Please model this.
Amino acid sequence: MFLKYRSGTSKAFLNGLRTLFWISTRFVNPDMNLEMDVFVGNTTLIDEEVYQLWLDGYSVDNAVAKREQTGVTGCFVDLLLSDTMDQYRVFYRLERLLQSPDKLSNQLLFQIPPSMQSVLFERYYNFDEAFVRELLGKKLSKGTKKDLDDISIKAGVSLRSCRRQFDNFKRVFKVVEEMKGSLVENVQQHFLLSEKLARDYSAIVFFANNRFETGKKKLLYLTFDDFAFCAEQLIRSWTLGAAGSVADDMDVDLDREFLQELKDLKVLISDKDLLDQHKSLVCLGVRGKMSTHCDIEGNFKGLSRGLVNIATKLMHSKDVRDFFIDLVEKFIEPCKSDHWSSEDVQLFLLQYTGSAHALGTFRHQVLWERYMVTIKSCILKMYHD
Amino acid sequence: MHGFVEELVVNEDPEYQWIDRIRTPRASNEARQRLISQMSGALQRKLGLKVLEMGGNAVLGYLQCFDLEGETGLVVRAIGTACTLEKLSGALPNILGSPQREPKETANPEEVAVNSQSPGSSSPRKIQTFSFSPPKPSSRHSSSSDTELSLTPKTGVGSGSGSREANPAKTLSRQLTQTPFDQREYPFFTLTSFPPGFLVHVAGVVSARSVKLLDRIYNPDEPETRDAWWAEIRQEIRSHARALGCHAVIGYSEHTSICEEVCILSASGTAAILNSRLLADASRAPAGDVRSWPGGSERRETENGRSAPRDGTGPEDSLPQSCCICHVPYDELNLPFPMQLAQCASCHLNKVPDVLFTTIELPDSLAVIGKGCLIQARLCRQKKKAQGEVNAATISGLLPFMEYELHTQLMSKLKLRGMNALFGLRVHISAGEMMLVGVASATAVFVAALPPPGSVTVAAKTPEPTCEGHLVTLQRHIDEIVARNKQQYKIILPEQVEEAAEPPPEPRRLRVSRSQSESSEEMPDLDLAHGRKDAFVIEIDDADAEEDVHMLLLDTPTPPGFLICNTETVPGVKRLTSNLQMFTAVRMYSLNSSLTAHALNRAFNSLCDNLLKSLFFKLRSMTPCCLCHVNFSVSLPEDEQVQVTVTSLVAACEKDSNKDEAIGRPKTEQLRGYSDSEDPLQFPLELTSEAAPALSPSHSSGTETDSPHLELRQRHRSAPNSSLSLPPPIVELTPLSFVAGHHVNKYLGIINVFFIRETASLREEGGVSGFLHTFLIEVFSMVRAHVLALGGNAVVSYRLKECVFMENLNKNQAQCLVNVSGDAVQVVCESDSEVDLQGASSDLQAFPM
Model:
């Protein structure tokens, strides 16, 4: 009377549903036992609260307990349980579709209003800042996935939720990695996300691709937002895509040629005359405008050397990874120890960039501009406690 | 309208053939699925031939059922009402086709096929019901209530002859069954709502049940035996109707419940007297004349002695005869059974019963006060496990008591809500191995014409001093509930709402209690000697009964923001604005077998109650909303298992600002009126009455045939704007006959699909719930896909008829069988057709519907 096995269901999906099966016998009434409880609507409507609980990795039991405590008043546990189970069943089935958003909008199985669809994606692809901060710049590999339990404890995010977020990052990464055109637009198109979220994903992809080091102790004070901002700046001016009408219009990789050329900036510190000239110009420019305690004269050489050295080293990909740590060590920390305010830093960088143009013998103006504009905005973003 | 048609086909069930032992379950299920669809096709063709013989071309109110009898076979039954639908032409362009539009109209090939309807033409889904022959003008919009427009697909002959008659020449020559209507074999109508004026009196529910043994069928593969069974039942229904002084049965339906080899056949309907003149028209009158009917009502009324004169100046004028429906069709001195009559509260001329039970939709013309609500009587009775004849005898012994009990419950609950009439009554009794369950659902309303219900009192049969205090508290509790209900459903007695000039009805006049206009033969004669003259008495004679009373009272109150009913629209709600959600909820409980009879009953009651509660909870985000057409069905798949399936539509409704208004005709009228008013069909109907002379029959057939296209094309053009055409388009499913906020543009045919799904990895799919959940999602999506393929965007009259679930947890297996049906339609958003509305608005005033 019954058939063997119905194939075509993924393992994760089955595991999810299997958990639902075992929980379903939690509440026992001596008179009657609820064996089956299904509610199916023609339109799939989703309770956002339950959806969030699911995304946060709550099991049905925990979700019910949570719902019991918060919000919905005056209803019985069995109602909550039944509702939560129904919703969770839908979510497990939707999950595969959520992973390939183009499929969700073209399937007939679930009739979901478009507004609801975007909520679904937005929430599914949302991430915890604490978690992504831990993961930023790490290779999205199996090895990293194995470490997720540590990360989950560190970030205070449940492991289930971490796995989902990790898989999301990886999925987005795989799809847009080799794609041409604007990174943000690609993410937006393929995963139907809002612009904000798409930007964040671009940053994550960019960091993962270039493997920037973000986990060192010195960098811990930086938030994901800081890095996302920097990533945007880097993408805007340092990548292949930024270089203009290059045929190979890629946002993910840094422009190698540009990095190579950066070594020409060395002249700014290696040429003694140039260095002194530059210093005097900057000192002249900031005189009286910066806080009195700032010692431009004494610090200039160190700071300038730091910035230029970062530039010249960027041709090695290992040093690219250390980009942020270098910025902090070579520039931000000295400034901080000298108690510069961020206005002071801004003024200094402005003068520092601008006065290089006035140097008669310095020929790499365009290169300098491209380098310094990005450096300036990154440093300013990172210059806080 | 030609009357009742029925057909029945029997075949062997592939699941019980010997070959099933060696083939895979899937192969078996596929064979079953195939066979069932073949049978249902054959059935429709046979029915189609019958209709043709009668001279009709359509079946309305088509109800098709499957009886899985098990080893004795598989039965597919269908009943319906044969009708002649006409394509209305002529007048259409004049109204709708403003000159600018006409040139654009080019014959769309598809539509031409539909119109010309040559035999064997490629459009089996012919009927785009552009218009109906008058007897059913409203059956298209207001009611296709249960009506699937099943048009005997592929019977080329059928379509040919049917619409030939309806072709532009309007020579509608119907060779009609010349027998007067009431002498026909079964004067039954499966429809549940009718055009105004068609119903004259409604007497009450008639029902008949019969218990049969399937293993005693002499030759199981032939339909004769079953035919004979049903014939018996129908005859019984007819004689009940006769006993009530009625010549017709409306809202008729049939139902079976099978447990092993015992089969309960039940049929129910509402005895009524129909307008004989309309009936005659329906069958005989020439088309031109007939068409003028809705518009030309004045003329008819003068001729029709029965109906009071009325001026058709505007819809605000409430029909004086609207209360006529409630008037008893029999003589006061010659009652068919003991009951109390009161004077009609609106006309003070005729007698009305104190309560009215019906299976039909609330007629538009009937004035109601306040809002309606769903009431349910639930009952579960234990029975001994038995075989064959003994079992059948036990069941038939229990049935009358169950029916009595259900009605008592309904009556008490009705009184508790302070209402006096029930519509859409559906009684489901299912048999299982160990028990019998019955669920009666209906929509309670307060009909203005009927006397207000008296107060509810509790009385102990043997007054004991000890329980006096107890009774007092109980009584107080009851009073509170009644008051709360009255407030919730906004029932304000007529004195407060109607003009002062009108003499207030005298509530004291009405007398007791349980007399009902209900005649089911099993009903024991009611003992009315309660001694209390103005109150409904709930008697408590022992502890059990007291528990019952508590159970009655403990019905979960409908939470604020919800309205719930099992009719198409909630009585008293002006109109539904949009569909929010159509859902099916299935629950299966296993009851503890060691329960006492009363605990069992209580468990069953709370089970249904919980289900409703969970629905309210799930839908809480949609309030304020109405749950319409709530359809409960209960089955007993295994010894101790109860499976409850609920299908319903959640719709948004307009907030009614003027709460205390006595809502009479306007309410549903608006609801339906919108579709009427924009409906192309309606205008011709009345136009012909006014402008018929202008449109000579020899009107060029060209224009006439083209007119529908014109209309259609306009709709087509507007369709892309509507949200319903987004990719993939959203398909609405609704159990109602219309889509709120939209109107039906085109009927694309019946959808009747049968699915069987099996699994052998039950645990992995999330247990039984997970399996069924997936399956139902898939069923819904398949139905939607069907509709899309037909070019439609909605399903109306959607029914989930069968949901049979079998499981074997130990083997990790389950299988489920589902039958769904409905009418595929193309609907257009109301706002998109405003142009038409404007074009037609001038004609509207003259149209008293």
